[in-house]
Structure formats: C-alpha cells, structure tokens
Structure to design on (96 residues):
C-alpha cells in the first residue's frame, strides 16, 4: 500500500505530522500516537514503540528521525501557532 500524502516537518527537521521511520511510529502535532494494538499483545512485553512512547514529544525521544528541509516555496503554518513555520519535505519525483 502506498501513502499519497507527504509528512509535515518541524523547523528542526523532526516529524510534526506523519511517520517517523527510525522509531516506526505515527506522529500527530509532534506527539507519538498510540499504536492501537490489542491488550493481549502487551501482556508479556511492550508491543511496539508506538505504545512505549505514546503521548511523548517526538523530539524528546533519542534516535528520532531528522530530515533535511526542502521547501520548494511551499510553507505551511502550525495549527497552534507555535514553532514558527513547519516545512514540507517534498518526495522525489518518480521516473515513469
């Protein structure tokens, strides 16, 4: 399955909204989302990073992904007015 949207980056290159591939977690407004795995998967151990880091700021977690900022003139502002402009990392063009 292919995702059609781009990730939104914060001014330091960390993920603001999207998927952090280093930690394998979804991020919304800079916070790690709960994984949604069933409770039975957590009985013996933590099921995944999404559960372990849920609700934490992605910037506070060691090893989080930092991407280079590529704007190509496209800038969007954070919905809460913090952190200045968030920049979109545009995916490379496909060769068809």
């Amino acid at each position: 399955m292919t995702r059609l949207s781009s990730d939104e980056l914060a001014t330091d290159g960390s993920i603001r909204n999207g998927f952090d591939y280093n930690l394998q977690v979804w991020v919304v407004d800079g916070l790690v989302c709960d994984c949604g795995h069933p409770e039975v998967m957590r009985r013996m151990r933590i099921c995944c990073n999404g559960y372990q880091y849920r609700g934490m700021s992605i910037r506070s977690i060691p090893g989080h992904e930092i991407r280079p900022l590529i704007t190509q003139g496209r800038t969007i502002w954070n919905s809460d007015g913090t952190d200045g402009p968030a920049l979109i990392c545009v995916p490379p063009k496909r060769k068809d």
About this structure: Residues 74-92 have pLDDT under 50 and may be disordered. The beta strands are 8-9, 15-20, 25-28, 31-32, 75-77, 85-88. Helices lie at 49-52.
